[in-house]
Amino acid sequence: MAGRHGLANDEVVLRRGQVQDLHDRIYTVEAALDDVEGDLARTRSAAAYRTALDHLFAACAGLRGFSFEPRAIRATRPRS
Known about the structure:
By secondary structure, the protein is mainly alpha-helical.
């Protein structure tokens, strides 16, 4: 069925909103990594590492349980 719709067997159709949501969540993690990198460049105390871990944990929590739900492509029946 995928081939009839111009898709390879390992490709799926996803809603744009799902892809955007994942992009936003990944961006949050990337921003947290940048924050932590800057913070730890200034000080590497145990408290700084604890704060960094808390910040990264909070940023990554948005990815927990996230999953894509592929959209089914409705098969068209050949006309008789």
